[in-house]
Write a structure and sequence with these properties.
Length: 490
Amino acid sequence: MTQHLFTPASSPEAVGVPGRAIAAFLRRMERQRVNLHGFLIVRDGQIAAEGYWAPYTADSTHRMYSVSKSFVSLAVGLLIDEGKLKLDDKVASFFPDKLPPDPHRYVLESTIRDLLMMSTPNDRNSYTSEDKDWVATFFRHDPCHPPGTVFAYDTAATVVLTTIVERMTGVPFLTSMRERLLDPIGVSPDIWCIQTPEGTSWGGSGVICTLRDMAKVAYVCMNGGRWGEKRLISERYVREATSKQIDNSLGGHQGYGYQIWVEPDGGFSFRGMGSQFAYCFPEQRVMFVCIADTQGAPNGDSEVGQAFREEIFAQLAQGALPEDKAADAELRQLIAGLHILPQHGERTSPQADVIDGCWFVMEPNPMGITRMRFHFDGDQGIWEYENAAGEHRLAFGLGRQVAGRFPQPGYSGTRIGVPGDRYRCLASAAWVDPQTLNLLVYVTDHYLGSLKAAFGFKGDQVGVLMTKAAEWFLNEYSGFAGGRLVSDNR
């Protein structure tokens, strides 16, 4: 059986998934303009359907955000299997160099188990992007309740767990998982993790891998710790990790295991910000996995999960379904045409000729933009502007996406707080009415985010509204601004 895992089924119907249901899901995502990047449906270990929104492909590596936490859970589980860690070990014992002079008893009482199930003594995540030692902040944060009592989502807990794994193994936590888990299931060699300011892996949010990589790791959990018939991690640990260990119903959830969420219908999930999901349902022998960036969309996360449940999960059959060649052809055509949607609207307006190449001098504004102008050439354009970081140019498509680099420098690279290259992005614009140009920028790098801007023109004046949805970057691009066209400045 092992050799047949993650090979395409002859059709979705062959594994009891109606192709028409998958097509309905994809059309729903397009109607809702959900910014999905890829999806994968696995039933009985075979791929029922798989697709990617151009320019993403099966080989694209992608930021998994808090799905990373589930990877860390398995790294901890492997060390527990080897007898090198215990769930009841006190986490403070691993960090004599990080403890404050008089640590609170709640901190000293905190165990590996407490951190795995997000029941730390803290009320919130203890670090910010400005802190230089994230592990130290966990121990220095003022605790407010005994550990192991109530659920409080705390990414610093995962940072501490990751650092314990790396101190014990002497290698990055993903490297520690290679021989025992990642290599046997064929995880790509390109998997890696962004680093914290202190230089350890950011296991709380930083794993970058392919969609199939995430799906394979989740499948091991859905299969009770086995890949086919080969056991890779103990059944006991996986069973505990994927089942309810603590209540989180006040937040509208079903429970939480060890860095893994509990779902209805006997399921569990890996979840990451922006709709990185692996929904696993062992009883129904099915998993739905996706990558996306829905940070800027109202209810983006819930829309993806709800659409999967209503359009696909509810339509599953116990066994194979009759062949449906028409549905198969329709689904193949839909998948072949998937692409990230550009800004919706018209490609041109008479206003474009009026402002083309003209500078607008801006009043003081939160973005610090002092002047700006647009150039239009057919179905593409350039937004040129100046702010505190200098002069910038952003190319965009009109009614289509243009790939490039976002011009703002100084954002984090492979390590938080250490600047890297300018982020890759997709940019598009459209006239949403004759006087208003909307710009949509998707950052598609190791960091994901979006910038939306509206430019409204009235006579020789312009009004600007910018909003951003991104963690710790694009902060310069949020707020309102006004400006006036400078005479004879073409």
